[in-house]
Structures are given as structure tokens and as C-alpha cells.
Amino acid sequence: MFDDSSKKIIVALYKRVSTDEQVANGHSLDEQERIMRNYCETFGYTVYKVYSDEGFSGSETSKRQAFNQMMEDMKKKKFNKIIALKLDRMTRDLCDFVQFVKDTDKYNCGFEFVLEKFDTTTPTGRMIMYILGVFAQFERDIIRQRTKIGIEGAIDKGHYGGPIPFGYKKDKDSKLYLIDEETAPIVKEIFDLCLKGKTYQQIANIMEEKYSFVTYTRRDKHTGEVTKKRKSWRDCTIGTILNNKVYYGVYESQKKNKEVNGKEKTGHIPPIISKEIFEDCQVNIERNSRNYYRNKKYLFMQKLVCPKCGRIMACNGTKKPNGKEYLYYKCKDCKTRFREDLIEETLIKKLSGLLQFYLITHDNLIPIDDDMLEKLKNGKTDNTIRYAFDTLTIDQKIDNYNFLDGIWKAISYEEKCDFIYEFIDTIKLKQRTIRGEKTIELLQINARPRYLKQITDLFKQNMLDRPLCDGRINLTTYKSRAKAEQYIEVLRDKYNIEVIDGYNQREYLTPDVLKDVFKIIKIESNNFAEKNGLLYLRVIT
Predict the structure, then answer these.
(1) Alpha-carbon span 31 to 92, nearest angstrom
(2) What is each CA distance from 85 to 27, 186, 339, in whole angstroms?
(3) Which residues, in sequence order, are bridge partners of residue 430?
(4) Is-contact 269 249, C-beta < 8 A?
């Protein structure tokens, strides 16, 4: 503290730089302090403290820690004058400067700028002071405009500033993002866990147990040196990854600036995941934020839509005195309830069919060796998925069993949960009471959009058949009889197949024969010289 009546001048020195370029081309922090101390020594000022802000622009003084601490100390009468090298070191914002002058006047604290002299006690001096303030803001606006143009130009070239996202590295020469083969698989794993319904914290716990820590790169803003750092996995780390569009190849400029409409740039970042996976994860994240019953897994968690109000139904459970646990789903608004075991019983046939498709297309349910794979991919049509479905259908006819009846029961409860969460988007049910007993009717079941797109693409590429008769017969279309016969020969490598011409041998299609038919092939030829046809494929046991 000091006595206001004392003639001794106690000063606070304030210094600031905003960028490395200013250090190189202007006055560094050390240089500013040296000049100010020499100035104080010349005039006999006593230095109370040096306040330093490094890496802050001349605007928005509210964000500068040292500046705000200096103003607080001024209010406590710890000094009676503030010294800075130039006015623009204090602020480049005219409104901030006007407020600064008001505050110093209120607390009877003077200020001086070493390289800019004017007498603030006279009208002329105050006019010059405000003119300098206007020019400081003008210079700030010019700098901001040039910086914006420079940043936009760099972004257009794929030169992005800021920390390098986990899963990427930056090429030293081109300055473009490259996929980091060491960490990118971890990013894929994080998105995969989110697709399976895991929360941020659950994913962080899995990552902590499996990888111990997250490794990321940071560039020193002074030296430019890139170093690797480590930190523990936390839910906020997972959230940052799952909400970053960079992972499907999109850079968002001005993402954190809510006052500016940021722009999205594509074409320079190699994607680690697809856009469809990212969007599915956003749906899961939103649903997770509204679902509070997360102490255990549920088959249809975040999937059931209330038939009355359309709200996603919450999960819960109750345990009877006999120890048996019942899991159910409840709408918080309409109080509608569904028991899980009754839902599963209603949907088992539909879910089994979807699970069969999922296992064939994702988990290689039917092993195919390299020689067979080469035959199936011979030509423009890829028959791999078709062959897998036909193999299942034929084996069921030979062994007289229904694969779908056993497939659902064969997997664990946790595997069922993971499949439903990843593959199914929403399920809509209707509950009825008939003769005092509650029954459940399926109104609608929707697969995830990316899986619907996958199925649609497979149909368009003629890689997937249309199931008939509850999946007992597969319908295939070929553009020529030669293509059909080529595929039939592949089947004959493993099975005894009889081909019946549906146009010329109709009399052979008796009920006994039809029960062994596993495939119908339509020939829709573009060649006018070749007739269309209908072939029935029957397995001979």
C-alpha cells in the first residue's frame, strides 16, 4: 500500500506481445522491460511489479490475466502510475482504451507511454491520446483482416493450424494431414464402441485399461519443434474425438467461435471413418444424453419408440421375491411399458434374419478359400455374398433344419445387445390386450441408415438376392445365360445341383420338386438374340 499524499511515484510496468513474429520484428518482452526500467531509472520512479501478457492480441483486455491483475492491484492502491512502451501495448481496442482511462481517473492513477508523449492534463493532449487510440484500433483491424486472408488461404491449401488431431500426423514438406498408422486404429475402435452404445466414460475406461494413456503431438509455438506428449484417457478426450468431423475428412474453421459461422473444407484430409459412421455416433451420443438407466445392458436400449408420443423409451428392471429379474422399457411421459422378454419373443424371427445378413457381410459366417473366392469374383459380378446365402439355404434343406431358429439362441446376451445397438435404428411396437393377456405387435423396425445404404448398394450391384418364401428360396437376376451357368458351376463344385427350365419344363415343377428348390434365376438379357429365361435350382440329396 502507499499513501496518496506521498510524492513518491510507484509504477506498474506492463508489457505484451501477441505473436512470435512480433518478437522477431518488434520489441520482445525482455526488450520492452529493459526500455521501461531505463525510463523509470531516469525519472526516479520506483517499480512495484512487472505485469506480462505473452501470446495475447491487443483486443479484449478481459481475457488477459496479467492486465486484469494489474487493474485489481491499481484499485487496491498498490501503485499510482502505469508505464507501457506504447499505447497499443495496452490495447488496440478503442472502447477498451476509453474504459482504461476512466478506471485510472477513478482511482487517481496516472499512465505514461515511453515512446509516445502527450500531456493528458490538457484538452489537446487528451485529443492526441484518443487519436492514437483510434489509430491503434485501425491498425488492429488491418492486422485482423490480413490475418484472416492469410488463414483462409492456408486453409484452402490444406494447411491447418492448431493441435494435430489424434490419429493424424502432419507431413513436414506439404504440411498436409496424413493418417497415423499407429493411432488411427484406436480412433476406429473408439467410434466402434460408440456404435455399440458405450458412453464417453465407458469408452475412456476401456481405453485406459487397454492403452494406459493417449499419445498426442504438440508443436512448440516458439521453436516449431513437434513433440509427443501423454495424458490419461478421460471422458472429455473421447467426446472431443467423437464430435470431430475431421475423422471423415472435413475441417471446420472457426469451430469454437460461436459468433462466426464457420466454414467446412473437404478434399485435403484423408478420412479414418465414413460420414455414415460419424452420423450414427451423433445419434447415439444424443440418445445417451437422455437415457439415465446405464447400470447394465439392455437388448433394446435407446431403440424403442413410444407408440403414443414418439419419445425414446427408457430402460429399467425389477426383481421379484423369487429372485427372477424382469427388464422392461417405459415412456416417461405416457407411462407405456413393454417387457423385454415379450419384445424379444415378438421380434426373434425378424432379428434373426437381420443377424444372418450382418454375420455374412461383416463376420464371414461362411468361410471361403482363396480358390473359391477367385471363381466367385470372376467377371463384373461379385457372387461372394450370394454364395454365402445359397450355402446356408442348401445346407438347411440337406440337413432339414432352420438356421434362423437357432442363430439367435446361439449368441450371448451381450452379443445380441451389440448387434441390435449397431444395426438397428428404431423399433415401434403396439401393445394389445386379448382375453386378459398382453400381446405385442411389431409396427416398424428400421435399420441404421448406413446399413440400409449398404443393402441398397448391394442390390444395385447385383451382389444380393431377394429372399422368397421366408428366406427358403433366393431370387437372382443375371443379364445372360452364360453368367448364370458360370455361377451354377461354382455351386456344383460342392453340391449336386439340378437345373429346371421354368419355361420349357414346367411339368417337372411338382410340389415334391419345389420343396428342394433353393434358388430361382431370372435371365433378363440385353441381347435380342438371346431369350429371357427362368431357371429353378434344386439340390439333390
Answers:
(1) 20
(2) 9, 50, 74
(3) 441
(4) yes
